[in-house]
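SAMPLE LOG
Freezer: B-3
Tube label: C17
Construct: single chain, 88 aa
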Amino acid sequence: TAKFPADEYLARFRVAEFDLLLCVFDGKFHQADSDLFHEVTRLGKPCLFVRNKHDTLWQADTETADLEDEVRANVAALVGEPRPVYFT
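STRUCTURE (predicted):
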């Protein structure tokens, strides 16, 4: 965002100093998100992914489990490897 530009985010929030990162999301990721999580992975920092608003995860004629698998696949594509995703 304009308030938190992607090219300043890591330095501004000193992400490298944290022991664990928690990524809480409810929508799609953007390129800046992907760049951030690739850097977090490069730094060797653990990150937990939590898909919030599970009750909004709905699509006609699609099982919830299939939609959850789609979210997991999106996270894996984002960070370059499969990661657990927790749904709340």
